[in-house]
Amino acid sequence: MPATIDLQRVAPKGVVIGVEFPRGYVGDESGLQLHAKSLRTLDERVAEAVNLAQALDIDVVHSEGVNLSKITPSTLLGGGVVERIAALVKEQKIEVVFVDAPLSPRQQRELEVQLACKVVDRTGVILDIFGARARTRAGQLQVEVAQLVYQQSRLVRLWSHLERQRGGMGKTGGPGERQLEIDKRLLKARLTKVRNELREVEQTRGLQRMARQKADVPTVALVGYTNAGKSTLFNKLVDAGTLMADALFATLDPLMRRMELPGGLDVVLVDTVGFISDLPHELVEAFKATLEEVVMADLLLHVHDVSSLEMDAQNADVKSVLGQIGAADKRVIHVYNKLDKAPDAIVPRDGVGVSAVTGQGVGELLEAIRNRLQADWHTAKVQVPASDGRRLAWLHAHGDVTEQHLDGETWTLVVKLRAADLAAWKQMA
Ligand SMILES: Nc1nc2c(ncn2[C@@H]2O[C@H](COP(=O)(O)OP(=O)(O)OP(=O)(O)O)[C@@H](O)[C@H]2O)c(=O)[nH]1
Ligand SMILES: [Mg+2]
Predict the structure, then answer these.
(1) Which of 19, 92, 381, 402 could serve as a FRET partner for 367 with CA atoms 20 to 30 Å apart?
(2) What is residue 153's DSSP assignment?
(3) In a domain, 32, yes or no
């Protein structure tokens, strides 16, 4: 997988620069668009950028926020800032400078020349994090597509895997063809190959999803800002062995477990990638497929971190991504997590307060999931002869039996059924 930053190396020294754009600025001549104004202050965004850099094992020795009064087209940052950072790079032997903004290919190259070190922008960093954390084939392929598309515009360096493949491709290009043209062709070929493979993987996933739908197993997807505690809660709920880490994006790919809710309702629980502010649009595109599980889910659990000072801004970011992938109108339960860390937090009435670590509130959450999934089910009181094992078994398999008692030779049951199952039951009777 192509990576902007070499993860094999031990903690390269880095500098992080947050950027405040001039008022009213919406993009530059290269067509790069800024995302909607963040609710975060410059300081908060710098802190988040430092977290991103650390997630890539960069040893951040300096970070700062820069207020741009005007845009310098060639380098984005003004000459004074560039000079100052260049001195720091030299003095501290900095290997990488992370500018937390969209840089045009030209700006990135020019900054690399003037700072005399590697320069990465927000999209590049997030792509690398996603790439490092991808755990399923589909996730890896999606990140690679996004990376290839990103690199197509900048081709600043060649990747080893492309070079390796070059050997097998025979003679590329006529004499005098520029290296850049060859690179572009290799890149395009690779993109086609990865996209094809991705299509195959997605087809399989689609088939699996259809099988689940046919079996009437509802899907419940955990969504939320990165680090909200989704994977921890997922584990608490299903006791599955998901990777957990106090790092950004510990989960990249949807991870699914089938589980039984108290009362016997089977669901598939899906853990998903953490959302983040200003998700590069390349990634929103690439992840539409991964997030398809979210789009197709019967119910979303939107996990919030009540201990975070940024809960409101994160909430807005998650809602914005849900809107972008077409999942804004899903049924959702708001889950307010990490109550153990913020015991005085006020849990909004529409939500459930939990601690994924201590297990507080988890029983209530399971109950809420079941109630929401069954909100449009019908409750029926039915009587079945005790000898009719077939129909009794059918009821238990398709419905949620909440009461039952045997009176002589007849079972009386109170059972919740989907509308379609109730109709089927009536046909059988
Ligand atoms: N104190 C406390 N810590 C929690 C709780 N839930 C999660 N954490 C911690 O928060 C950190 C992030 O948890 P994860 O479950 O990895 O978060 P996530 O939402 O899956 O993160 P991404 O996969 O990166 O989006 C870990 O260090 C957890 O131990 C909680 O209820 N209380
Ligand atoms: Mg996770």
Answers:
(1) 381
(2) T
(3) yes
